[in-house]
């Protein structure tokens, strides 16, 4: 049996270019913008363009990618002013008369060129108590969550997040308030608040309250508009606002009862 012939990458210069068409690409580097020119190719993605530039024109260009198929989210950049996955964005869909302008994701420190430091993003995920805390149920009952229950449906609505950082880069509140936990971390907290197996609810709701938490969201919907997975972090944050308010009222009621007793 003959081995399958691998499909060539669209970043491969041997892939036939579109005759007579070139693409101008402006890339923000550490010392300002640098302009490159590449050939247009059929079904070309933004990641294909960056890869071709790095391989054929400037091997010092820094950027990040892994899966190339929209599963890891590591290739996210700012494309013509909008944060996107570059592996799933076709050049034909976003290039304008001036070509492409590529920049690193906003709201994150730049390591070099198009590569950003995701540490602040994941630090906020941790600050929002984004890790599952198992309860004391017997192991045999651990996974028994009714798929049609309201809590399970709430979890399902946000569980597909892959932490690409697109919503974080799009969030206006993060830009104004660098301490704000951000939509991805709060979306994760909401999925766990609705997980009936988790025992960390009280500490989690306290963690996502306050000036850096869910109440700081202005409901601009930027995170929901830009999410490549079509999730709705804005609605998750609204759920957290309700839950934290109920939790605060409950605590106030308990303290009032104790003082009155």
Helical proportion, percent range: 25-40%
Poorly predicted runs: 1-8
Give the distance, in angstroms, between the N- and C-terminal Cα atoms.
84 Å
Order of helices and strands: EEHEEHEEEHHHHHHHH
Largest β-sheet summary: 5 strands, mixed
Question: If you had to describe this structure to a student in words, what would you say it looks like?
Answer:
By secondary structure, the protein is of the alpha+beta class. It folds into two domains: 22-116, Roll (Ubiquitin-like (UB roll)), CATH 3.10.20; 119-260, Orthogonal Bundle (Fumarate Reductase Iron-sulfur Protein, Chain B, domain 2), CATH 1.10.1060. The protein contains ten helices and seven strands. It has helices spanning 46-56, 91-94, 119-127, 150-156, 166-170, 172-176, 183-193, 201-207, 222-226, 233-260, and strands at 22-29, 32-39, 77-79, 82-84, 100-103, 110-112, 115-116. A five-stranded mixed beta sheet has the order 2-1-5-3-4. It has a two-stranded antiparallel sheet with strand order 6-7. A hairpin with a 2-residue loop joins strand 1 and strand 2. Helix 3 runs parallel beside helix 7 (183-193) and helix 7 (183-193) packs across helix 10. The termini are far apart.
List keywords for this structure.
261 residues, alpha+beta, Fumarate Reductase Iron-sulfur Protein, Chain B, domain 2, two-stranded antiparallel sheet
